[in-house]
Amino acid sequence: MKSIFFLMKYPTCVPETLIRKFNGQMNACIQLGYEAWYLEWNGEAFHLVCVNTGEKRHVMNTTQKLPREKYYHTLYFIDMYRAAIRAVGMQKFDKLYIRFLPTFPPAVRFVGLAKKKGITIIQEIPTYLGKGNDDGSDQPSFVRRVGLKVCNAYAQLAQRKMDFFTIIGVDAKGTFAGKPAMNINNGIDVTAISLRSYQPQEDGIHMLLLASMCDWHGYDRMITALQNYKGREKIILHFAGNDGDGSLAKWKQLAEGMENVIFHGGVYGDELDELINRMDLGVSSLGLYRIGLELGTVMKGREYMARGLPFVYAGEDPTIEKGHPHAVQVPNNDTPIDMEEIVTFAKRVRAEQNAAQSMREYARKHMSWEMEFERIFNAVDGGIRQ
């Protein structure tokens, strides 16, 4: 059986919002006939884990004086690459799939060793903004600028040894860092996502804004739209998620005094399922333009589709057909959002009996990771399917 090693941040001791994505990618590879492996960190040690069998092998212990959360965002990266070097010495792999992360000297040694072992190396660039790569965010501190410069230099060294790149974002036109590349869409593992069991509420229209709150989610646009709304329907906005880049505090200030804007903080597992069951609509990213994107395959929209929760989104998503009956598109710019249009949409989908099942089937056919990885492997192995 062919094998593939995934390298990404996969902790079991601190929250990581992308674990569902990683699990979906690995499960897709299993469906395509691969044995999938990854590195897991439990706060004390790294383990090499086989998804197919559940086998877990100790790779190395980690020791750090920093608090766990701070370590996870700094020195963790160096230890992760050191552990990856040991992992490729412990197990034979045919392919390596690396999510782009801050890059340090052990990463260069790691990809060099993988190359010597004949492993095909694929790197995912998760938010590609084009040549400028300027997301319009505030200028980072001097220390952070120096750190980014060092990481970028090592990333360029490591990328010389990559065989193929997968790009999420701006069209890379078939190449990246002088190597073959293809644009992919964020996929989902539909079977891992709970189907909504709709429980409509009598007190108004409830909308969910779910994310690790960042400026590019554009959720402040919904607060402003609610402030400007002159209609008769009561609308309740539910923010579920912790702060990502400082935006949450700004949004709380913007919504100060608004009783129908609720900030839940981080919500997970059964509690999140119960919250979603009470929602009429979900809200996906409304601020892609803030990071220079018009085209975007946002994970949140895919999760809403798989859950069967009708939703609002902005920007162009190639996997959502124009005029989809369960997804309403708003302008991907700073123009005011028409809340009356969203209310009309919400009232229509509330009356539908089979919306959830229909949306889930659409997600299975058009948004799965299995479909994306079949395209990736066809391209990597020399048979790009048109």
Question: What features would you describe in this structure?
Answer:
- This protein is an alpha/beta fold.
- It folds into 2 domains: 201 residues, Rossmann fold, CATH 3.40.50; 176 residues, Glycogen Phosphorylase B (Rossmann fold).
- Helix content is 35%, strand content 21%.
- It has a 9-stranded mixed beta sheet with strand order 4-3-2-1-5-6-7-9-8, sandwiched between helices.
- Helix 7 links the parallel strand 11 and strand 12.
- Helix 3 runs parallel beside helix 4.
- The longest helix has 18 residues.
- The chain is globular and about 65 Å long.
- The two termini are 27 Å apart.
- About 2% of the residues have low confidence.
